[in-house]
Here is the input.
Amino acid sequence: MKYLLILSLLVLLPSLSTAETVYVTDMLKLSVHEKPQSKGNKITTLSSGDPITVLETVPGYSKIRTRGNEIGWTKSAYLVKDKPPRLIVDQLTQQLQNLQQRSASALEEVNKARGSATEYQELLQANQQSLEQTQQQLETAVNKNNDYESSMEQYQSSIPLKLFLIACVVLFIIGVALGWFILDYRQRMRHGGYRL
Here is the structure.
């Protein structure tokens, strides 16, 4: 007896360790027939959550139109005005997945925008440095220009160098010619008007 009890425990032990938890679904299949009270040929089968339009009601049965425009009779007890919870959960799950995808896309766009903003900020800093350098160069050029203009004002009343050199050459030629003429005239006067 003792061995039999131990043996039965050993046999049951593997079955206890492989047991798993399962759940019952609320999925319902509902037949649609040509006539009330499930009489006549079966037209189609509806699943839980399928939207239908009620055309007529008799005790216990409703005449309906399906999404595929099929008309038939089915039991009224299985028709409810509110969406079944499973369908609501499915819709909410789908909405959640859509929102998660949109959030992921938006996050990617934000990250791209942040990267672009960083690039633009670096570019802006580089341009600002270049602008500062250009402003310094411009200030230097303006100062040089002002110095040049003030020096030009000082020399504005003086004769240009080119004109001065031309005048010197002309005066030198006139001086040489005049000197030669005077020397020639004196020699002629000494020698009685004859050139030697």
User: Anything to note?
Assistant: Confidence is low (pLDDT under 50) at residues 12-25.
